[in-house]
Amino acid sequence: MRRYLDFVCNRFDSMATGKGNNVKFGFIRGLMGLLYVAVYQIGSSFVPDSIVTSSSFLEYSLFIRLCIVGIWVKISLYKYISCWLISEGVCIVSGLTFNGVQDGWNMWDGCANVKLHIYENITRFGQMVPSFNLNTNIWAAQYVYKRCRFLGNKMASQVITLAFLATWHGWHSGYYVTFFNEFIILKWEKDAEFIISKNPRLQNFLSQKPVKIATYILLKFYFILFLGYALTPFVLLKSEKWLPVYSNLYYSGTILFLSLDLVLPLFGRFLIPRRKKEE
What we know:
mainly alpha
């Protein structure tokens, strides 16, 4: 509301004192949106929704099925990104998105809903929150998650926030399963990051350049592979559509991530070095 009032009262005109023309930047974002539309249209013609719901899907091995679902969902998300970029471009051209001056440049990212440089380089699901569907995530964090502080439990706050987001999207079962997947995946990733942060030897090993390159490739593959599994219910929405796909994937992602959620805390006792008692 404050942004809109500043815009209609022409306050941004006197505040935008840096470099950077909003019209040029707006057209760039809009053209990027059109590029994503083209990628979506071409990609969906090669990997349509029917590929994961057809009987021929079972002819592939489980690994190939997971790869196909990963690529299919990755392409499906481009339709959302294209809409966000095109609408953002329009808002930038109008001047509504002015977000202050930084290092002498006018910032026109006030209505950005996706950070492409982060999103296209994501290697784990935790990086999606600050890069994809930004406005919804920021709003939910500010008005739902933070207002659950009285519970004194971050996990409970996260569960309530995700349940709210699922209900906010609608009543299709696919929304609830998707946000459940988000919860169990983010939990194991946070547990793994915590264990690594407490183990200096493991940190030193992972900081070696060859290991960093190999880790990036493996994590990138992991993200695309299970992005498809996690978001299949979101794309198909109805249980009669996504349940057969999950059945054909043997519920592998659900079993894997629930197992990791149970096992990692136990492994943490052995992987986190104990502090030596002071004599």
